[in-house]
From TrEMBL, chain A:
Residues 145-159 have a biased composition (Basic and acidic residues). Pathway: Cofactor biosynthesis; molybdopterin biosynthesis. Gene3D superfamilies: Molybdopterin biosynthesis MoaE subunit. Belongs to the MoaE family. Its EC number is 2.8.1.12. Residues 134-159 are annotated as: Disordered. Heterotetramer of 2 MoaD subunits and 2 MoaE subunits. Also stable as homodimer. The enzyme changes between these two forms during catalysis. This is Molybdopterin synthase catalytic subunit. The lineage of its organism: Bacteria, Pseudomonadati, Pseudomonadota, Betaproteobacteria, Burkholderiales. It catalyses: 2 [molybdopterin-synthase sulfur-carrier protein]-C-terminal-Gly-aminoethanethioate + cyclic pyranopterin phosphate + H2O = molybdopterin + 2 [molybdopterin-synthase sulfur-carrier protein]-C-terminal Gly-Gly + 2 H(+).
TrEMBL record, chain B:
CDD domains: Ubl_MoaD (cd00754). InterPro entries: Beta-grasp_dom_sf (IPR012675), Mopterin_synth/thiamin_S_b (IPR016155), ThiS/MoaD-like (IPR003749). It holds the Pfam family ThiS. This is Molybdopterin converting factor subunit 1. It comes from Limnobacter humi. The gene is moaD.
């Protein structure tokens, strides 16, 4: 039986600056000795997308809605999984290949719930949080299209 | 009663508009009604919608559907499907 609604700490940040994963996970775990598992996902900028090399990727977002959307995703995850703390950091502004874009991390007494919650958060973020990517390629700028596979990744949590 | 409309990403670029205000009434008072009204008062918006394809909307910072009610003084945003993460 999964005990949901156990969240002690929720950390959501939208920022231009890079982040240090080790420091972030320390902040996520600090003072919660019931934690036995930490699962973290980091999304990064690829140098190649759909056949074109990428010079820069610029992340636009909807200030005000973005934070509300991410906090809501954490709240829904807390209602479904046994997580003790959760964190989402998403960068905005211009980024280069190899740069970190996003961190999603969850803690739990045991690994399975931490893994599941982390994946759930990323699947919802991909389809619900108001961010848009624009890539600069040798042929000019182009907005990244949404992928159907992201919709189906989210849909599997709804069945 | 003014509705604050915000546009993002490719829709903002195509129209050259990031923010506009709608003070006239529109029927029905939903996301679909507002979208149709914007197409009438702003040909740039109508033109851009053809290229954007699937359009999404938010009312007062919550994701919305075509039949979502637009309350007085709401902030309504239109944008293409999101691509974060």
């Amino acid at each position: 039986m999964v005990k949901t609604g156990q969240l002690r700490r929720s950390l959501v940040k939208v920022q231009e600056d890079d982040f240090d994963v080790s420091q972030c996970l320390q902040e996520l775990r600090e003072g919660i000795p019931q934690i036995g598992a930490v699962a973290a996902f980091v999304g990064t900028v690829r140098d190649l997308n759909e056949g074109s090399s990428i010079h820069t990727m610029t992340l636009e977002h909807y200030p005000g809605m973005t934070e509300k959307s991410l906090e809501n995703i954490v709240a829904v995850a807390n209602g479904r999984f046994e997580i003790l703390s959760a964190m989402i950091i998403h960068r905005v502004g211009p980024l280069k290949p190899e740069d970190q874009i996003v961190l999603a991390a969850c803690t739990s007494p045991h690994r399975q719930q931490a893994f599941l919650a982390c994946e759930f958060i990323m699947d919802y973020l991909k389809t619900e949080a108001p961010f848009w990517k624009k890539e600069q390629t040798p042929d000019g700028g182009r907005w990244v299209s949404a992928r159907d596979s992201d919709d189906s990744a989210k849909a599997r949590w709804e069945s | 009663m003014t509705i604050h409309v915000r546009l993002f990403a490719s829709l903002r670029e195509r129209t050259g508009i990031d923010h506009l205000q709608v003070s006239e009434a529109f029927e029905p008072a939903t996301v679909a009604g507002l979208k149709a009204h914007l197409c009438v008062i702003n040909p740039m918006f109508a033109e851009a919608l053809k290229d954007v394809g699937r359009l999404r909307a938010a009312v007062n910072h919550d994701m919305a559907e075509d039949d979502t009610i637009v309350p007085p003084a709401a902030e309504v945003a239109f944008f293409p499907p999101v691509t974060g993460g």
